[in-house]
Design brief:
The complex is a heterodimer of chains A (110) and B (122).
Chain A lengths: L8 E4 L5 E6 L10 E6 L6 E4 L13 E6 L2 E6 L8 E9 L4 E4 L3 E5 L1
Parallel strand pairs in A: 1-9
Antiparallel strand pairs in A: 2-6, 3-4, 3-7, 5-6, 7-8, 7-9
Chain B lengths: L2 E5 L2 E3 L5 E8 L8 E6 L5 E7 L6 E3 L7 E6 L4 E6 L8 E8 L9 E4 L3 E5 L2
Parallel strand pairs in B: 2-11
Antiparallel strand pairs in B: 1-3, 3-8, 4-5, 4-9, 5-6, 7-8, 9-10, 9-11
Classes of the chains: A mainly beta (110), B mainly beta (122).
């Protein structure tokens, strides 16, 4: 059971916009930044979003992050086949004094 | 470019010890916090431990506290994870990751190494 809650799966067709939610609590998302990672099959995870909504320069602007209260979301617009991957949210947890992850969301591009 | 290369994985019997290494290059190693994160094949990510840039501060996941020790050697640009009293549930791919930006303990993992597989089995 992960501290952060993500839907196990999501799907969309090419060109669509999909969102992936990440729900936490006051000790993690409520008071700390949220980070998002993309893991393509057979590879190491890659940073997608840092500090809730900031995007590394090499990440396409189709990816965006947001946070409100104790929840966060990752949005992917203009869905492409290469976006098919597992997506994870992460945050620091003040109560645990550690990093907590969501269980991951498997995105399927139909 | 920034590169992290893990090594030291393999098969080990329950109760034994193993030390993982993560060789860093392409950045000033002594300026950044470093993490270990693990992943059971086919499952999600689990954070293991973090160490501050100078090695003075460390945090561990409850699941490994007292059994694993994170350390670093800036003269060798290398991060370590000493694992003892290994259990079957420690079987996973272990990734090292550099902390991005300020905040040495933050889950701002960028980049990640390719991972090294640890299998705990008799």
């Amino acid at each position: 059971q992960s501290v952060l809650t993500q839907p196990p799966s999501a799907s969309g067709t090419p060109g669509q916009r999909v969102t992936i939610s990440c729900s936490g609590s006051s000790s993690n998302i409520g008071t700390n930044y949220v980070y998002w990672y993309q893991q393509l099959p057979g590879t190491a995870p890659k940073l997608l979003i840092y500090r809730n909504n900031q995007r590394p320069s090499e990440v396409p602007d189709r990816f965006s992050g947001s946070k409100s209260g104790t929840s966060a979301s990752l949005a992917i617009s203009g869905l492409r086949s290469e976006d098919e991957a597992d997506y994870y949210c992460a945050a620091w947890d003040d109560s645990l004094s550690g990093v907590v992850f969501g269980g991951g969301t498997k995105l399927t591009v139909l | 470019q920034v590169q992290l290369v893990e090594s030291g994985g393999g098969m080990v019997q329950p109760g034994r010890s193993l030390r993982l290494s993560c060789a860093a290059s392409g950045f000033t190693f002594s300026s950044y916090g470093m993490h270990w994160v693990r992943q059971v094949p086919g499952k999600g990510l689990e954070w293991v431990a973090v160490i501050s840039n100078d090695g003075s501060y460390k945090y561990y996941a409850d699941s490994v506290k007292g059994r694993f020790t994170i350390s670093r050697d800036s003269s060798k640009n290398t991060l370590y994870l000493q694992m003892s009293s290994l259990r079957g549930e420690d079987t996973a791919v272990y990734f090292c990751a550099k902390t991005g930006g300020t905040g040495w303990y933050l889950p701002w993992f960028d980049p990640w190494g390719q991972g090294t597989l640890v299998t705990v089995s008799s």
